[in-house]
Amino acid sequence: MDLSRSGKDTGDIAIPVREVKSSKSGKGAPPVVTTTTRLGQTPPAAGWKRGVGIIDLILRVCAIAATLAAAAVMGTTDQNLPFFTQFFQFQASYDDFPTFTFFLAGNAITCAYLVLSLPFSIVCIVRPHVIGARMLLLIFDTLALALTMSAASAAAAIVYLAHNGNPNTNWPALCQQFNEFCPRVSGAVVGSFLGVLILTVLVVLSAAALRRN
Amino acid sequence: MDLSRSGKDTGDIAIPVREVKSSKSGKGAPPVVTTTTRLGQTPPAAGWKRGVGIIDLILRVCAIAATLAAAAVMGTTDQNLPFFTQFFQFQASYDDFPTFTFFLAGNAITCAYLVLSLPFSIVCIVRPHVIGARMLLLIFDTLALALTMSAASAAAAIVYLAHNGNPNTNWPALCQQFNEFCPRVSGAVVGSFLGVLILTVLVVLSAAALRRN
């Protein structure tokens, strides 16, 4: 409200409000009021923002766990079948499918970004009125959301195909043979969708925190 | 600027700032200052927000065009091959692939949502300080972004497979035969990704507009 005068903290901003009130009410001494405000409790908006920041941090850690688990499960999945034809041995691993490689890369990138974003999230808790960090988090959370959603959906499409095949195009279902590969890959996809869900909540939370400025 | 009288607008907030300044400078008459503010030009924040609102509206129309084109191209793609085996005639249409059906539905839903969101976008231009409509748009834009990204990525995974096949899993490439089907489907996927790009910009723009409250 009087950003025009001070820096970017609303801790500073609340003070002139008290001045206005006191000068309106009965010409009381503004410096005294200012001192009590500086030493006293934080304004309600800051408390609310701090709460959002703490939820943000917790959700961020959960999203790190989800995407890390998805990437790890996908990266360690590998199954050889005990029989082979004259052409090649049947084996399935994530790098036989370009889509699964993309899935692994996408989840790993999101996981790395989320780890790097933790300090910014902590800054938003310590200084609830810093707008720059919150805005930065929102923009990159949106991009991470898009990347993770892309990786998860593409992998889900291939997993669906592996489970059901497509008779119209002569694509056989794999999961009858690869009975260990398919559940692990499906689990990785579920973990990735969980990460997407958390990132969506993070974007909306950041927007709500920005709104209260 | 008479918005300030109608309720929750920042127009109310801007007025005491002038009062503070004037009472500090030389105890000038605050009511006069207030009156000129009410009748005068809009504050810079409102003009900035109105500009964002207009860009928002234009981008929204572009996104409607992109998703509608993607859905329409996918829905009208159908190709029969001039030869057939003893089993079935070779034909490809979007409803042979569950993923393409999902693509069509996802893009159609996003397109319908975007059309329905146009009035809210116009409200944000006419009354730049209404926070509710802006927040609503941001939340649903994020969800639409996730849905469209999901549809586009899943379809892209299948299109990639149709172009290249997967020798490890005996999934043959289709696009040698279906030389008309594949380019059309690829075009639809590109249109959908364009929609995703626009929606990402819309989310960031909405967040920037919320920030300036």
From TrEMBL, chains A, B:
GO terms for cellular component: plasma membrane. The keyword Nucleus does not apply. The chain crosses the membrane at residues 57-77, 97-126, 138-162, 188-210. It is a multi-pass membrane protein. InterPro entries: CASP/CASPL, CASP_dom, CASPL. Signal peptide: none annotated. It is found in: Cell membrane. Homodimer and heterodimers. Belongs to the Casparian strip membrane proteins (CASP) family. This is CASP-like protein. It comes from Tagetes erecta. The lineage of its organism: Eukaryota, Viridiplantae, Streptophyta, Embryophyta, Tracheophyta.
